[in-house]
Amino acid sequence: MDINEAEFFSLKTEQSILVDFQAFPSKLAEILEKCLSVSMSRDDRIGFDLVLETKQTGEALLNVIEQNHFKALCHLSLKFREATDHILKQHLAHRLSVEKSQNEELRITNERLEMALARRTQEYEQVLAELKRFQEERDQKIEQILLQKQKELTDFAKESFDKEKALNSSYESELRKLTEAHQKILRELNEKLDSTTENLKIQTEKRWH
Fold first, then answer.
1. Whose CB has fewer CB within 10 Å in the chain, the N or C terminal residue?
2. For the chain, what percent of residues have pLDDT higher than 90?
3. Is 111's pLDDT higher than 90?
4. pTM of the complete model beyond 0.85
5. What is residue 190's predicted lDDT score, i.e. its pLDDT?
6. Residue 59: beta bridge partners?
């Protein structure tokens, strides 16, 4: 269907259409949507219907019928005629051009999305590489710290053991010296005691003689 402003004015006059030429397409689409969503009840049928009447001349009438409780009202009747080869070719060429244009827009959009996806993928891989490097560096630092602490602990244990060994050796040496000195004093005392006892014995014998 192709209608110009002059044809629409004639249609508006014939069928008492209230909208203007610019608003007609949207109102027609609204009516067609209503025809697609016919409301049905149990007893009554209320809504809009589309009735297509074809003729052998190649023309057709598309009638928009409102069904109500009283009668069927024709709100709009549109005439269609069979397109000539020239008009059909023009229409197909136009549709092909539109499809090509849309396909080109989709191709460009797809290329942009692929480039964006590739960029995001590269950024993601870079982030993963940075994360992996950070984890490796962290693990290496932790291992170094553990090794350093283990070495410090081993050195501290060895140092403590050496100090304890030195203290034990010094203690044993001092103890040995004290024991020897004590034994020497005991020997000297025993010698003095023996000498004193012998002198007393001699003096006692002298007194009795």
1. C
2. 32
3. yes
4. no
5. 85
6. 81
| 3-state helix, strand and coil shares in percent for the chain, rounded to the nearest 5 | 70, 15, 15
> Which pLDDT score, from 0 to 100, does residue 194 have?
82
How far apart are the C-alpha atoms of 187 and 181, rounded to whole Å? 10
Amino acid in position 180: E
According to DSSP, residue 60 is labeled E
Check residue 1 and give its pLDDT: 58
The phi and psi torsions of 52 (rounded to 5 degrees) equal: -105, 120
C-alpha dihedral sign at 52, 55, 61, 64: negative
The span from the CA of 47 to the CA of 37, in Å, is: 8
Residue owning tokens 């009638």: 63
According to the model, what pLDDT value does residue 38 have?
Answer: 58
Sign of CA dihedral 179, 183, 188, 190: positive
How far is Cα 205 from Cα 40, in angstroms, rounded to an integer?
Answer: 159
Q: Report CA Rg, the chain.
A: 60
Residues whose CB is less than 8 angstroms from the CB of residue 74 and which lie 6 or more positions away in sequence, other chains included: 63, 64, 65, 66
Highest average pLDDT, of 3-7, 19-23, 68-72, 122-126, comes from: 122-126
Using CA atoms, how far apart are residues 178 and 123, in angstroms rounded to an integer?
81
* Alpha carbons 35 and 33: distance in angstroms, whole number: 5
How far apart (Å, rounded) are the C-alpha atoms in residues 4 and 11? 10
Q: CA-based angle 47:48:52, to the nearest 5? A: 150
